[in-house]
Amino acid sequence: MIPLGVIVTFSLASVVLTQPVKDSSYVAAVYEHNLIVNPEPRVSLSRDAALQHMKKNLDIYEEQAARAAQQGAQILVFPEDGIHGFNFSRSSISGYLETVPDPKQESWNPCTEREKYNNTEVLQRLSCMARQNNLYIVANMAGLQPCPLSTDPTSSCPSDGHWQFNTNVVFRSDGLLVARYHKNNLFYEDSFDTPPQPEIITFDTPFAGKFGLLICFDILFQEPTITLVEKGLRQLVYPTAWINTLPLLDSVQIHRAVSLGANLTLLSANLRHDHLDMGGSGIYTPFSATYHHAKRGDPEEGRLLVARVPVLDPEWLGQQAKEEGVLNSESSSSTAADSCHNESCSDASTAPPSPITFTSSMISDPFTFALLNETEGRLNVCDGTFCCHLQYQRFPQGSSKELYALGAFAGLHTVDGRFALQVCALVRCAGLDQSSCGQIVEEAESKMDFLLEGKFGTRYVYPSVLASRMVLEEPEHFEKAADGRLTMKHSNMTGGLVTASLFGRMYHQDNE
Ligand SMILES: *[C@@H]1O[C@H](CO)[C@@H](O)[C@H](O)[C@H]1NC(C)=O
Ligand SMILES: *[C@@H]1O[C@H](CO)[C@@H](O)[C@H](O)[C@H]1NC(C)=O
Ligand SMILES: *[C@@H]1O[C@H](CO)[C@@H](O)[C@H](O)[C@H]1NC(C)=O
Ligand SMILES: *[C@@H]1O[C@H](CO)[C@@H](O)[C@H](O)[C@H]1NC(C)=O
Ligand SMILES: *[C@@H]1O[C@H](CO)[C@@H](O)[C@H](O)[C@H]1NC(C)=O
Ligand SMILES: *[C@@H]1O[C@H](CO)[C@@H](O)[C@H](O)[C@H]1NC(C)=O
After folding, report:
1. Domains of the chain
2. Arithmetic mean of pLDDT, 398-421
3. Of 373, 345, 350, 339, residue with least CA distance to 451
4. Annotated catalytic residue within 111, 216, 387, 437
């Protein structure tokens, strides 16, 4: 099913789950597309020239849709910006825009009803791709919506009388346009408007029930992601153009972590673009991850991932009670009974001494760090009242000297987006000086057995273990207690440890 190569698949063996039965699974595909760019995105193009450019990307989409269908895929996801590119201005993108009718208002099959709307070549081509290959297709494009011009200063209609949206479109396997979603959290996208209201968009499939839609930066925010989760959506479709930001926000690391922490399936299709450090796609379920992450400098090429995955939609599965999608296990049988439950550890005799701490910047946030200065030990590090606890045993490899530190951060992240965090992270420092802790490093040789724990003020905590050279390891065990304490245990690593992280999102504090 999975093509050979550097694709990695693993299962979360330590979590005991009923194996999905054969007829409650489906075949999903994501395509990491090596974008053919418009080299001068700030220069306006005619519609014809824009279509010529987009045709180059769409030709590749067409080949990949056929390949995915041959491998049995029932749904195929393409990345954000994969057809048109990025870095346009509001006016220079005009040749690329198509008006996308609202599928809630009207039923339109662009492949079979071509005459219904002019200037819909991209929609028509995608629709025919779905129809010819008999699969659902999710793609991202540049959309236009006329809006009523108004003198009312509170109107969000731009003065040129239309909105321009970063738009996901979904086509049924017969080509019918079934969903349209406008990105809510733009990331330096001059060409696009934020929709007047956040949109919560889902679509139904006969093989797996409901899917929810989001785009790239959206994944870090309440709207639409957590609203979808809280409505019971367990399957999310995710075109992205994710800029990798180690040590905490590499694509595969954070996307896999959200899937695990929110207990959902994420079909993540990223763009491949080395210059902007974009790449890393995956089919992530709560039980397994099939992903690909090229290393910088590898030849830039696309990559199709295909995997059979279990259906999670409770309605489709005929479950009556709507499960809470998120880690809400009130598990009383704590496996971390030997560790500190909070900063004032109950057993004072085994409490680690207060370490010497220092502040160093990680993803532009001031983390409080302490070094792991022994081969094994325990550490507590607090940022204000938010504390992280670590028990560790290091297994140094060869002659390498590598510095590791435990970091804690609680506060508002304000660089490239504004979002409130509580994070515990065990990181390999980039060098041998403590000021290098939190800086970018991709490789490591030291393996470690560890237990990492924090007491979080949110139920949305995303766990991850990233090993050397962009390899994900599945946390051996993680568990959330009713009091907000989240424990992640891991041992027997196959590669050196780059980052182990508990990434807590305090959505309720984003606007404080
Ligand atoms: C976008 O365009 C600006 C101005 O031409 C340029 O300085 C910048 O590097 C470009 N950014 C990307 C991501 O290509
Ligand atoms: C499409 O464009 C042609 C030529 O400009 C015009 O005659 C036709 O009415 C248009 N069709 C629609 C549906 O707008
Ligand atoms: C996650 O989802 C699975 C399957 O839908 C369910 O069996 C399991 O109890 C959920 N886990 C948590 C921690 O909510
Ligand atoms: C920490 O845990 C101890 C013992 O379980 C408890 O008595 C104390 O109130 C807790 N402190 C905080 C700040 O939660
Ligand atoms: C490690 O740090 C702790 C606290 O800062 C200190 O008590 C201990 O002696 C240090 N161990 C080594 C081997 O330096
Ligand atoms: C880790 O490896 C040791 C030694 O090979 C083995 O005894 C242990 O069961 C392994 N632990 C896990 C959780 O796989």
Report:
1. 27-323 (3.60.110.10), 332-509 (no CATH)
2. 93
3. 339
4. 216
